[in-house]
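Possible regression after last week's pipeline update?

I re-ran a chain I had predicted before the update to compare outputs. Posting the input and the new output here so someone can diff against the archived version. Not blocking, just want to make sure nothing changed silently.
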Amino acid sequence: MHQTSASRPTLEAVAERAGVSRATVSRVVNGGSGVREALVEKVRRAVEELGYVPNQAARTLVTRRTGAVAVIVAEPETKVFTNPFFAEQLLGISRELTGQDLQLVLLLVEGNADYDRVGRYLAGGHVDGALLFSLHAEDPLPDITRHIGIPTVFGGRPGWPGAEGDRSLLYVDSDNRGGAREAVRHLLSLKRQHIATITGPMDQTASVDRLDGYHDMLLDADPKLIVEGDFTDTGGARAMAELLERAPDLDAVFVASDLMASGALRVLRERGLRVPEDVAVVGFDDMASVAGLTDPPLTTVRQEIEEMGRLMVRLLLRDLERRAKGESAGRPLSSVITPTRLIRRATA
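New output (post-update):
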């Protein structure tokens, strides 16, 4: 039989059952310290016997924590729910939050009106912190979270003016530049002479870093071998078609995401070009739902997407703990760069 709110056990009832004060019960159920172990045990037994459930609103007043974290993706719904990269990162975030008994609040940003909505929500004190990813240049979200003062961890290296030297900004990223270098180094080892690249959107730091890695290995690369994509399958197909028009003698292409690489492979097949015999292809991500299903299976740079989501949560929780103790407690937190590695399959 379900208890009604009227019959729900109260803090006072627990205190009476345990033979302690109401203040002692409050300290125990809200994780406070300074209560003798014998009394803690009495309170816990009374809580169990009565089936007492702490009131979340009251707990929030005591702990100043809501038990929820906002995950803000600066992309439209259609992109978030169709791109497996976001699914993997959200999976890592969700699993880590669940393991910490915290709730995930997903906020998507599609147009200018959404920034006001998100800002109002964050300022309302509904969440303890925010995880932001897929930011583009000129995005107002970092200013919004900074103005509100909410603890924030970014997915990806912040790229707005002044961000590079700001040690207070916390982020989790992969070694995009190093991974791109490894991809191009592999293509060079195959004796490829005309190596092109399809970049991601150049208003995102991951795309900039991957293009920098390409240039590290090909200092005098011909600009006609570089075409900007948009991290989608159709964007990769469009960019590949443009590259073939510009440079029909290309014999390799480093593609800055697996999804774009799948589109590029489709165009190469339609043009009657053999992979890897005529054109070798290397992607970036190593998402199982893409790289293992392309024809042929994709050689790509692996980044730990789900693990990056988990690390974002851990970094945010460490920041919250540090703030609760006073910001000078312990060593300052550092951002995290996760390693990448080349996964060789059949396209290169």
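Follow-up from reviewer: compared with the archived run. Confidence is low (pLDDT under 50) at residues 1-6. Marking as no regression found.
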